[in-house]
């Protein structure tokens, strides 16, 4: 058994993900199971959500899990074992009004991990996606003019 190690990661900051993956691999040597479970969402009409916020949601829900998975995948492939899990959302399969950025990011993630599943079969790596229905998320009350507070994490 290994002593647990806390490593902080902002999954929406894709520039730091490779360093975090390296830190994990240097500490433990491998990752047997990667569970991508971080997510951000925002509720609002398409025309009221800025492109900047759309990008932040896409970074957290699509590029973050993809970048982390790609950083750890070579180690799994070389060992010919491992499991990658994406905790996604039913909104990755159906769109819901006032959740366009969130649904788009979840659609993209589902498509990527479905393709990855087919590619990883020959290496003995299992890729799973879980799409729960609506869940209760942590939400901060927004201060006036603070669009970041509209984000659910």
What multimeric state do the chains show?
single chain
Give the N-terminus to C-terminus distance in angstroms: 31 Å
Output the helix-strand order. Answer: HEEHEHEE
What does the main sheet amount to? 3 strands, parallel
Instruction: Give the CATH H-level superfamily of the domain at 32-130.
Output: NAD(P)-binding Rossmann-like Domain
Strand content: 5-15%
Shape type: globular
Query: Based on DSSP secondary structure assignment, what is the total number of beta strands?
Result: 5
The CATH topology of the domain at 32-130:
Rossmann fold
Number of helices: 3
Structural class: alpha/beta
The helix content, as a percent range, equals 40-55%
Q: What is the alpha-carbon Rg in Å?
A: 16 Å
Overall average pLDDT? 88
Please state the second-level CATH architecture of the domain at 32-130: 3-Layer(aba) Sandwich
CATH classification, class level of the domain at 32-130: Alpha Beta
Walk me through what this model shows.
One of its GO terms (molecular function) is oxidoreductase activity, acting on the CH-OH group of donors, NAD or NADP as acceptor. One of its GO terms (biological process) is intracellular calcium ion homeostasis. Pfam families: adh_short. It comes from Nothocercus julius. Keywords: NAD, NADP, Oxidoreductase, Signal. It is a single chain. The chain has helices at 17-28, 51-79, 100-120, and strands at 33-36, 41-42, 82-87, 125-130, 151-152. The model has no long low-confidence stretch (mean pLDDT 88). The chain starts with 16 loop residues before the first helix and ends with a strand. β3 (82-87), α3 (100-120) and β4 form a beta-alpha-beta unit. The longest helix is centred in the middle third of the chain and has 29 residues, at 51-79. The protein has 3 helices and 5 strands, in the order αββαβαββ. α1 (17-28) runs parallel beside α2 and α2 runs parallel beside α3 (100-120). It is of the alpha/beta class and 153 residues long. It has a domain at 32-130: NAD(P)-binding Rossmann-like Domain (Rossmann fold, 3-Layer(aba) Sandwich), CATH 3.40.50. A 3-stranded parallel beta sheet has the order 1-3-4, covered by helices on one side. A two-stranded antiparallel sheet has the order 2-5.
């Amino acid at each position: 058994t290994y002593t647990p190690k806390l490593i902080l990661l902002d999954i929406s900051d894709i520039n730091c993900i490779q360093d975090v993956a390296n830190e994990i691999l240097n500490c433990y040597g491998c990752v047997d199971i990667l569970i991508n479970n971080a997510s951000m969402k925002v509720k609002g009409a398409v025309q009221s959500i800025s492109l900047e916020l759309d990008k932040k949601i896409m970074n957290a829900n699509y590029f973050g899990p993809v970048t982390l998975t790609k950083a750890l995948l070579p180690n799994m492939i070389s060992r010919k074992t491992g499991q990658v899990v994406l905790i996604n959302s039913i909104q990755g399969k159906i769109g819901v009004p006032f959740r366009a950025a969130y649904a788009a990011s979840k659609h993209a993630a589902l498509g990527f991990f479905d393709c990855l599943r087919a590619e990883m079969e020959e290496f003995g790596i299992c890729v799973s996606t879980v799409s729960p229905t609506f869940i209760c998320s942590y939400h901060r009350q927004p201060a006036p003019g603070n669009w970041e507070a509209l984000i659910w994490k």
